[in-house]
Design a protein that fits this description.
The complex is a heterodimer of chains A (218) and B (714). Chain A has 218 residues and is α/β, with parallel strands linked by helices. Chain A has five helices and twelve strands. The longest helix of chain A has 19 residues. In chain A, 50% of the residues are buried. With 714 residues, chain B is α/β, with parallel strands linked by helices. Chain B is elongated, with a radius of gyration of 28 Å. Classes of the chains: A alpha/beta (218), B alpha/beta (714).
Chain lengths: 218, 714
């Protein structure tokens, strides 16, 4: 049916743009991604598009090396990816092992002073403000979004929404749970408390990288 | 802390703020940057509609606050949170200290909470042996300096990078340079250790959703997330007014709060916390979580027909950001704990009349706060109501009583003005300038020339200049206001000439007097009501429109009369008068239809000052521009056209030092357009602006719209 432009081999693909059936939605989807990217960048986030999870994980490793060097920390650089699926984590582990990155997924509390990169998925993206929605009830996931120098979030394009009204149903679901900690994240941590000059990275990540993943499963 | 209980100390404090060069520059830059940023962020969103929605659901919440509290408590406790209700600040502090003791807490970290400032929580906890560290950068800075916040959103806006560098050098015992990026990293490093060592985190909340028992935090730095995540215990101190019924309501707050507070579309983090979340360091690996709701006068407010709307406030701080007085004096001279227009009102309810009585007089009544309020709170009016209530309790000052008494008795008032004309002779020095009118009751006005009372008031000229109009297209009554009648009759005469040229029959009802706004400003509600009653009767004949050349008078006739006369037997007449009242420029442009065809003249440059009560009070913005252009001028809009001139009626009498500084900025802005003519539409503004331009020797003529138009009439 659909002509998927990126030649993925698996059958479970949900293509980002369904060129044949999309009709009006096609433009809407393209616009949503464009607006999301534009708004997230205004909020000082880095936004890139990746076709596969492999690309996303390679990106994470590159980022971690760069930060490890910049900070001049004793090697190896540290990366946490607490909430990745077992398959994605295994794949990332292979990459990190080859590149000498210390990757872990548990007990982030023993690293509260900071780690180089935290890799997470994002559940949803709000185009109007360039925001990520991350249900981070798991404490390790939550900490990964807080204590990392760089937070790298992988957002499947299928999670993009136009504005906050389009996430109400999901958010209501989260809030109905017996416990929940959900955050909208827009750009890195910032302050303007000294002379109203914008400074990035006070208590949270110094950088936010968002990878728009064009496949959801591949 | 600022002593606002005695006027002398308060005035001294204001003087110090005005003399603080850094503060003045910082506040000024902020005022301009905020205005532009806010405009940009609301480009794609209908602000009025959103503010209206917030007002609506907040009002529906405030009538059932207790029910919402019960609903929240039920839902949150089912999810493992303990919910408390504290009647007073003291009670809230005790509950929190007790939670600390029960959990063997030593070290406490806090994220920003105005509610905790309100209860003086830190000092209570410290007295009880806890070590408390603020983690919001601005809050940490002022905690280290033992100061109070000077802004609700930017608590350290009054400090320079040099002061912060010096402070951090002391804290770290290491020389810190004044680069802001580096100073921020110092805070990151120093405070990270505090997060790790802390036993308990205290936060506020921007909203609490009854339906799901969820609390929300709207933040930028990320410290609130660490405060609510790292320590085993989390306590949130939340004002009862933060309760909202549903998730949809909370999202509306998220939409408006950052935009209105700082011009950001959204903050870096919006955090939704529901139930006791997983926490590895807590017993049972579940966070020990408490939410303490604070009443401290809020329920009383909810039951007060005047003040229930105050509970709509989302604490964005916009009312301070646009306030011309705040811009001059900063937060330490403009609020007890809460700052800005809302702060003046909240001080009365949370901290009492003694702390509020002088603060509430420092409102210039320009309406800028009301126009940007995220929840449409009628802030200027409520400030006046607070002032009246305080005076009703403690006694009205003689000065105000006298003013009220005189204004109530029109013939006495006018007689005094006529006598004043003779009394002024020794001090006019042959010029038409002098201190006068309500000013006669106040000292210290040497920053601008004040005009003398005219040789003949307009009411004495009327029979001579009254034009005969055959077959009039409509009939109007002129409402002069006292300043134009007795000081600037030439402005009214010019208007009569313009109107007659368009075949409009003009009447000047002789029984009219002061509109009553000065009495209301002084908290003399009874006098304000009495003169309103007299004017409604005086203007009762069958006119199509009632026109005034004073924006404040029209605005008062239109918006205040129906309210203050609602329970009298002239309520209907007051409404009818309000419906007919119209500003001069609006009438000329919209009704009389004056265009470029009516005028001739050289394209000399002219700029314009929009009176507060015209642009914000009546929504008249474009008509004066159109008329200035129609008259052939090269119209040059000023960047701060809608910023108050600093007059504010009786305000300039009470706070001449602030008034003169606002005036100075205003004149600079007008002169920067390159125009030598400043046109406006309010005799009060003219008194201030012309007097200031003269005193400062500026090459700037200040004139009423009616005069410059009449001179160019074909």
């Amino acid at each position: 049916m659909a002509t998927y432009p990126y030649g993925c081999q698996h059958s479970t693909i949900k293509p980002y743009i369904n060129l044949i059936t999309a009709g009006e939605n096609m433009t809407t989807d393209i616009d949503t991604a464009r607006i999301f990217t534009e708004k997230a960048r205004i909020a000082s986030a880095t936004v890139e598009r990746v076709r596969t999870m492999q690309q996303a994980l390679d990106y994470a490793a590159d980022l971690c090396w760069r930060n490890g060097k910049k900070e001049g920390l004793a090697p190896p650089p540290a990366m946490a990816a607490p909430a990745l699926s077992p398959a994605d984590f295994a794949q990332l582990k292979n990459i990190c092992d080859v590149r000498g990155i210390n990757l872990f997924r548990e007990n982030l509390r023993s690293n509260l002073q900071g780690i180089d990169v935290g890799v997470t998925y994002a559940d949803l993206g709000i185009a109007e403000t360039g925001s990520l929605v991350i249900n981070s009830t798991s404490e390790n996931l939550r900490l990964a979004t807080m204590i990392s120098d760089i937070h790298l979030a992988i957002l499947p394009v299928s999670g993009l929404r136009a504005d906050d009204r389009d996430i109400i149903a999901d958010l209501r679901g989260y809030l109905a749970g017996p416990e929940n900690y959900t955050t909208f994240i827009t750009g890195p941590s910032r302050t303007a408390d000294i002379e109203r000059v914008l400074a990035i990275g006070v208590h949270g990540p110094l950088e936010l990288h968002i990878l728009l993943l064009e496949e959801t499963q591949c | 802390m600022l002593n606002t209980q005695d006027m002398k100390s308060y005035q001294k404090n204001i003087k110090e703020s005005l003399d603080n060069v850094f503060l003045r520059k910082a506040m000024d830059n902020f005022a301009v940057a905020y205005r532009d940023g806010r405009k940009k962020t609301f480009a794609e969103i209908d602000f009025d509609e959103l503010a209206g929605e917030i007002a609506a659901f907040k009002d529906s919440a405030s009538v059932r606050l207790m029910a919402l509290y019960e609903e929240f408590k039920r839902n949150a406790e089912a999810k493992g949170i303990r919910v408390h209700l504290a009647g007073t600040a003291e009670e809230a502090n005790q509950i929190i200290a007790e939670i600390g003791r029960a959990n063997k807490v030593k070290r406490v970290i806090k994220s920003k909470s105005m509610t905790a400032e309100e209860t003086h929580l830190n000092s209570h906890l410290e007295k009880n042996g806890f070590e408390v560290t603020e983690t919001d950068l601005g809050e940490w800075i002022i905690q280290l300096r033992h100061e109070k916040p000077s802004h609700m959103v930017m608590p350290a806006i009054h400090l320079s990078r040099n002061q912060v560098a010096e402070l951090f050098t002391g804290v770290t015992r290491k020389q810190q340079d004044n680069e802001i990026e580096k100073l921020v990293k110092v805070a990151r490093k120093e405070l990270r250790t505090k997060f790790i060592e802390a036993d308990m985190g205290i936060s506020g909340a921007n909203f609490a959703i009854a339906q799901s028992g969820t609390m929300g935090l709207v933040t930028n730095e990320g410290n609130a997330r660490l405060v609510t995540t790292v320590p085993p215990v989390h306590v949130a101190l939340v004002g009862l007014e933060k309760l909202v019924p549903t998730l949809e309501d909370a999202l509306k707050i998220v939409r408006i709060l950052p935009r209105n507070a700082t011009g950001q579309a959204i903050t870096s983090y919006v955090t939704w916390i529901t139930g006791a979340n997983p926490c590895e360091s807590a017993p049972g690996k579940r966070k020990v979580m408490h939410i303490v709701f604070l009443d401290n006068g809020r329920m009383k407010m909810a039951a007060d027909p005047d003040f229930a709307q105050v509970l709509r406030c989302v604490r964005c701080g916009a009312c301070a950001n646009v306030c011309p007085v705040y811009r001059m004096v900063g937060g330490h001279a403009f609020g007890h704990i809460y700052i800005g227009a809302i702060g003046l009102i909240l001080t009365y309810f949370f901290h009492g009349g003694d702390d509020a009585k002088n603060l509430v007089q420092n409102c210039i009544n320009c309406g800028a706060c009301k126009s940007v309020c995220a929840a449409g709170i009628d802030l200027p009016r409520l400030i006046k109501v607070v002032f009246t209530r305080i005076q009703d309790n403690t006694g009205h000052p003689l000065q105000a009583i006298m003013l009220g008494k005189i204004l109530k008795n029109r013939s006495l008032f006018h007689k005094m003005l006529r006598i004043g004309r003779f009394a002024q002779r020794p001090v006019t020095g042959g010029t038409p300038y002098l201190r006068h009118l309500p000013m006669v009751f106040f000292p210290e006005h040497n920053f601008r020339q004040l005009p003398a009372i005219a040789a003949r008031p307009f009411r004495d000229l009327w029979q001579e200049i009254k034009p005969v109009v055959h077959n009039p297209v409509c009939r109007i009554a002129l409402f002069s206001g006292c300043v134009q009648d007795f000081v600037y009759p030439e402005q009214l005469a010019a208007a009569v000439k313009l109107l007659a040229g368009k075949s409009i029959a003009v009447e000047f009802p002789m029984d009219q007097g002061c509109c009553g706004l000065p009495a209301e400003m002084m908290g003399e509600t009874a006098a304000a009501r009495e003169v309103a009653l007299q004017n409604v009767k005086a203007m009762h004949a069958d006119f199509d429109y009632v026109i005034s050349l004073c924006a404040s008078c029209v605005s008062h006739l239109k918006h205040a009369y129906p309210r203050i006369l609602a329970d009298t037997n002239v309520a209907q007449e007051a409404k009818a008068l309000a419906a007919k009242a119209m500003s001069f420029s609006q009438f000329l442009h919209d009704v009389a239809g004056m265009t470029a065809d009516d005028f001739q003249g050289e394209p000399t440059p002219a700029t314009y000052h929009s009176p507060c009560h015209l642009c914000r009070g009546l929504g008249v913005r474009e008509q004066p521009h159109a008329l200035i252009r129609a008259a052939g001028f090269d119209f040059r809009p000023a960047a701060e056209e809608e910023t108050c001139c600093g007059f504010g009626g009786t305000y300039t009498g009470k706070f001449p030092t602030v008034s003169s500084q606002i005036l100075e900025k205003k004149l600079e802005d007008a002169v920067s357009t390159g125009a030598g003519l400043l046109v406006t539409e309010c005799p009060g503004c003219i008194m201030q602006l012309r007097g200031g331009a003269l005193m400062q020797g500026r090459d700037l003529a200040v004139r009423h719209l009616s005069e410059v138009l009449a001179e160019r009439l074909k």
